Amino acid sequence: MSLATLLVLADGRLPAGGHAHSGGLEAQVAAGRVKDLADVYAFLRGKLATGGLVAAAFAAAACARPAEWAELDAGLDARTPAPALRKASRAQGRALLRAGRSMWSLPAAVVPASGTAPREMHQPVAFGLLAAGAGLRPHEAAVAAAHGSTTGSASAAVRLLGLDPFAVHGLLARLAPECDRIAADAANRSADPVDDLPAAGSPLLDIGAEHHATWEVRLFAS
Amino acid sequence: MRALAQVVAEADDRGGTRLTVLRGESPLLVRRTGGRSGPGATVHLVGGAAGPLRGDDLRMEITVGAGAALTVRSVAAQLALPGRPAPPSRLTIHAEVAGTLRWLPEPLIAAAGCDHCTETRVEVAEGGELLWRDDLVCGRHAEPSGDARLETTIRYAGRTLYRHALGVGRHADGWDGPAVLGGGRAVGTVVAVPGFAGSLPASAGAALMPLAGPGVLATAVGPDIRQVRAALDPLCEPVEEARGGNESTLPPWRAEPQAATAIGTP
């Protein structure tokens, strides 16, 4: 594997539309549940342990067995009860595949003999396929996916709450060991049947996303 | 303590439902309740001992045949308690549904120090109907939450429709942060296939979510179980039962949710 390739995939500047999403933070700020730096930390920890673990596990599994991408995609549908979050995840998956086309080719197992590669899937599955195409291993896909589950919300926190960007990045540094632990757990389970993969849910993110989707004016798409 | 409870409901030839198996062991005792005139049967879970306590291994198996309708309730909340040092208490529920199953038990309360896991797997055959409710209260009044994990898999026509895990307590990182339950100490979910008859009262702490497959999920989070009930009860209780008042038609043990006792506490 190439460490630099991993950095390219994990870079927040990858033009895959991630900046348009707050990862559920905007709804929780509006609900008054996230007001300061300590709240942002608690939010990020919970998100990493739930959605972050699921994203890491599905990215690792898609990287390990790309031919099963459709089953993995259905597994994420079953783990994403909120329609607004399914829509956001698919929009980000589409954007990632579009950006990825000019970077690496998808694994051969994904591309039908005749026809074009799939363009519609959940973001973690797309992430895992792209990682496989880039020659990365499941564990690397998992670490980048777990990390990526927190960075979008962290940068959104700076904009939504006017927090000190240095302090917010300090939170991400504090979460790095937990990110590593979650990625190791996710990678260890990457061969499990889809139903046995992690399914940790976040009730407030689901509820918040559904309310957020009805707002007329919002800063972030989700 | 190990226990197995089994309920098998089948359609009889008069348009009703008969229970061909109704078997339990303490602390998982099952009793048929209610009248026998309607099309469906109702069973109440009656605890035969305190708990679940650490080390308990409880299993519940439910089968609802085509054309049969079964409602399962419980007479009191299930209070997961700490016990001697032992593996986590475990409740495994497996349901096969070709007819209609309404699973509407009282909440699980994760008392401080408990270590409990509920694992649910429901297989709904094509055309089957389901109402599956799980309420969780994180700790008794003003105490920290014990450790509890809920692992739920609901399948419909051979495909996984809903897969959800929720962990609370010391070992669940970030569970009380604003991504998971925030300041909420009670959470309730109901999965309905094909959908709900009732509607969800408008609330910032609840949402109705159409699943990707058939079916709908309702989730509610609140400071305590009352807000969760206010949101979810109207979805779960048929209009006939709620007509002519609200609280008065509920059984007496529903009036004081916080006074719930452990299953089986004499």
From TrEMBL, chain A:
Molecular functions per Gene Ontology: nickel cation binding
Gene Ontology cellular component annotations, sorted alphabetically: cytoplasm
Coiled-coil blocks: none
Pfam families named among the record's database cross-references: UreF
Major place of residence: cytoplasm
Domain of life: Bacteria
Protein keywords: Chaperone, Cytoplasm, Nickel insertion
Protein location: Cytoplasm
UniProt record similarity statement: Belongs to the UreF family.
Subunit comment: UreD, UreF and UreG form a complex that acts as a GTP-hydrolysis-dependent molecular chaperone, activating the urease apoprotein by helping to assemble the nickel containing metallocenter of UreC. The UreE protein probably delivers the nickel.
Function: Required for maturation of urease via the functional incorporation of the urease nickel metallocenter.
Name the record gives this protein: Urease accessory protein UreF
Record organism: Paractinoplanes ferrugineus
Lineage: Bacteria, Bacillati, Actinomycetota, Actinomycetes, Micromonosporales
Designated gene of the protein: ureF
Automatic annotation (TrEMBL), chain B:
Family annotation (Pfam families): UreD
Keywords from the named record: Chaperone, Cytoplasm, Nickel insertion
Entries under InterPro entries matching the protein: UreD (IPR002669)
Cellular component, GO, one term: cytoplasm
Region (Disordered): 241-266
Gene Ontology MF, one: nickel cation binding
Key word Oxidoreductase present: no
Localization per Swiss-Prot or TrEMBL: Cytoplasm
Task of the protein: Required for maturation of urease via the functional incorporation of the urease nickel metallocenter.
Quaternary structure (record): UreD, UreF and UreG form a complex that acts as a GTP-hydrolysis-dependent molecular chaperone, activating the urease apoprotein by helping to assemble the nickel containing metallocenter of UreC. The UreE protein probably delivers the nickel.
Family to which the UniProt record says this protein belongs: Belongs to the UreD family.
Protein name: Urease accessory protein UreD
Classification of source organism: Bacteria, Bacillati, Actinomycetota, Actinomycetes, Micromonosporales
Recorded name of the encoding gene: ureD
